[in-house]
Write a structure and sequence with these properties.
191 residues; alpha/beta; 35% helix; 14% strand
Length: 191
């Protein structure tokens, strides 16, 4: 199911839908700021008990909204948030989310995540099952790379996407990149 959002209360309306036991994928796209009540009801909804994939694009969530979303009890395996201001607070909420231990794919492109947010994700024991982490277009910087290489919980990653993350705000120099690749290579050789 793919919804184009043009109202602040669309998530509330979705939450109030009758149970859709076979709905496994939901995409919500739109440039509105949802109401706190709408996000709370959406996250608490039992309308889609088998939801395995959730995609939210270009919707303006606040830090409080991410805290509410993290309380959702869906068995998510794939979460994609695109062009949302996840930042550090949102990454911390996702790292301790009720669904974090079932996630296998976490895509966070263009979500304003910096080293602090990457550190929260890299240190989260609940994310040990991740196989794919997409941090494209985020200024992860050397601190974020260091957190990823030192992470004990993200050792099962098969795909890590960091494209277009070398902004002036948290520039990666050649040495930082070399150190990152060397650390990953050293870890793989030890296996």
């Amino acid at each position: 199911l793919r919804l184009w959002v043009d109202s602040r209360d669309v998530l509330k309306a979705v939450a109030e839908l009758p149970t859709m036991a076979n709905l496994v994928s939901l995409a919500v796209c739109g440039g509105v700021v949802p109401t706190t009540t709408a996000v709370r009801k959406f996250a608490a909804s039992k309308s889609f008990p088998r939801l395995a994939r959730l995609e939210i694009v270009n919707t303006r969530f606040t830090a409080e909204h991410f805290e509410m979303l993290a309380r959702a009890e869906w068995p998510l395996r794939h979460l994609k948030l695109t062009r949302l201001a996840v930042r550090k607070a949102g990454a911390e909420a996702l790292a301790r989310a009720a669904f974090a231990d079932t996630l296998r794919v976490l895509e966070l492109p263009e979500c304003e995540i910096t080293a602090g947010g990457v550190q929260a994700l890299a240190a989260a024991p609940a994310l040990a099952g991740l196989r794919h982490l997409d941090l494209n277009n985020n200024s992860v910087g050397p601190g974020g790379l260091l957190a990823l290489t030192r992470s004990k919980t993200l050792r099962g990653l098969r795909r890590l996407s960091l494209a277009y993350g070398n902004s002036g705000k948290a520039a990666l120099d050649t040495q930082a990149l070399f150190n990152f690749l060397f650390q990953i290579g050293t870890y793989l050789l030890k296996k």
